[in-house]
Amino acid sequence: MKKVRTGKSSFGKGDWRSYFRLIPYVRMPWLLVAVGFVVNIGYSEVMAYVPVSTSALFSGEFTGSALASAVIYNVLNYALMFASLILQSWVSYVAIRRAQEVLWRRMLRLDMSYYDGHNASDMMSTLTSDTETALTSLITQLISLLPSVYYLVRVCMTLNSYDFRLLLSILILIPVNIVYVIIIGRWQYEANAGIFGQVGRLTGYLAERVANIFLIRAYTNEEREEANGLDASKKLYRAKIRLSKVNMAGDMAAAFMEILQRAVPILFGTWLLSSKAITMEQWVAFFLFIGQVITRVNGVATTWTGIKAAQGASARMINIFTAPEEKGLDSVSGERDVTPGDIEFRDVSFAYGDKEVLHDISVTIPAGKTTALVGRCGSGKTTMLSLIERLYVPSSGSITLAGRDVSCYDLRSYREHFAYVQQDAGVFGGTLRSAMTYGLKREVSDAELASAAERTGIMSLVNSTPAGFDAPLAISGSSVSGGQRQRLVLTRELIKGKSCMLLDEPTSALDAQSALNIQTKLLELFEGTTKVMITHDLRLLSQVDNVIFLENGRVLDSGTPAELMSRCEGYRSLVLCSKEV
């Protein structure tokens, strides 16, 4: 992800390119923006007439027409002001929601390589706080900025019609205001960039520690983690203090600018009135204009500082929008009828960035058999499963299914051919029913669920709660045991009925008895299904049909367990070491 530099060389330099590039990506509600813009233009036009219509009353003209004009323009002014505020808030909320929808859709379709190099908590921060900051600024700019400029032009024209020196008394302060806006805008950008960075880091740190609270307790490391968390919190605190200082300096400068903006024109206007260069009615109108002009100028200044603050947020959003998507996920391309058969790796190599993890692998995984991928940590076993699933594309070589290159199949149709069981038994929170039916594209009856649950042995859990299949399940299934989570996953895969199963150490997190029960269920329920599994469990190795032994990203040998024990020294050494342990 693009890093925000905070050195002197980058002081206040916002990413304008990313800011404006954001617009085509976020599905802006252009109709609502147009309505808001028109209402703001109308509000600016009416607001420009309010001082003129009111000045006659203040100067002593109490005629019916003067009173009616003042009342009409003031009522219309307030009506349009409230309409403008409501519309701007509404459009902002709609734009934020749409941007989050588009960003979330994009995140679900990013190439897996993007997730390898980016922190998930930072991405969530981008989805939530960054979208709000960037879109609020964009909507304010699109709806309010030009009408504010239009209003200032209209006021300048009116004042010039009275006396050009009245106009001059206001224009002379604009350069000072511009300098103030630029300086505060730069400080705002840098301070907000620091805030967003610290929020992302603190969120990521806390989320990781909470998810691994048992590890902290097991190593009695609470004091150190408390200190680390406090340190991260202090860094966020310092960033917020810095932002507060910037805001305080901005408020003080704004107060000083307001004094200048009021005092200079009023003193100048009083001198013109005393010299009879302008009438009392014109001076009153001029006096009323000053307050409105200050409000609009400050509004433009706020918009500018908001833009500077939003540039960092938009840059992080653009980083996701421009990241490569997984090819073929949203388009129907290639064959949709996937034929079961042998899976063959032909001279396959693969690298994560510059690190090559598989080297010229050539091996066949027979259909309808159970094949175990065995090797030490880092040998490339999980990468092989990911390549079979087409989560990644080989750097070189090819993978075939039933003699056909897997790239010739439509990606969604191809993945529908597989079931995937992870070592942590991936389930989402919700209900038992949602865990058992996740990913299914059809309705599943209670009878079908009950039949599958009876076969996997999870029906006892379903019957133990009054809600049955609709019993609540905590986030990541943490409210049930590891063995129960695996049985929920097996139920899901049994209902799917896929012809090929990929299993990444499905029993590694279970106790010996639970692991043995799950292994028995696997072989019993999915007999005749192609099963490719990563395992180090010797009891399971003795029941597989085929073993592929990897070392340092290369296939050293493959065959039946007995064949590898007799001829592969590396495999035999690994098995014997496991037995000794």
Report on the structure:
With 581 residues, the protein is α/β, with parallel strands linked by helices. The chain folds into two domains: 14-321, ABC transporter transmembrane region fold (Up-down Bundle); 343-580, 3-Layer(aba) Sandwich (Rossmann fold). The protein is built from 20 helices and twelve strands. It has helices spanning 16-21, 30-58, 64-109, 112-116, 120-162, 164-171, 174-211, 213-218, 222-274, 280-321, 381-388, 411-415, 432-437, 446-456, 459-463, 482-496, 512-525, 538-541, 561-567, 569-580; strands spanning 343-352, 355-365, 370-375, 396-401, 404-405, 418-421, 430-431, 472-473, 500-504, 530-534, 546-551, 554-559. The protein has a six-stranded mixed β-sheet, with helices on both faces. A hairpin with a 2-residue loop joins strand 1 and strand 2. Helix 5 packs antiparallel against helix 10 and helix 6 (164-171) runs antiparallel to helix 9 (222-274). The longest helix has 53 residues, at 222-274. It is elongated and about 115 Å long. The protein starts with 15 loop residues before the first helix and ends with a helix. Residues 1-14 have low confidence and may be disordered.
Query: Given the helix and strand composition, which structural class is it?
Result: alpha/beta
Tell me the count of domains. Answer: 2
CATH architecture of the largest domain: Up-down Bundle
Radius of gyration: 34 Å
Distance from N terminus to C terminus (CA atoms, Å) equals: 43 Å
Could you list the spans in which at least 5 consecutive residues all have pLDDT below 50? 1-14
The biggest sheet amounts to: 6 strands, mixed
Number of strands: 12
Strand fraction equals 5-15%
Number of helices, where a helix is a run of at least 4 consecutive DSSP H or I residues: 20
Strand order of the largest sheet: 6-9-10-3-11-12
Kindly report the average pLDDT value: 80
What is the helix fraction of residues, given as a range?
A: 55-70%
CATH topology of the largest domain: ABC transporter transmembrane region fold
Name the CATH homologous superfamily of the largest domain.
ABC transporter type 1, transmembrane domain
Q: Quick one: CATH class of the largest domain?
A: Mainly Alpha
Shape annotation: elongated
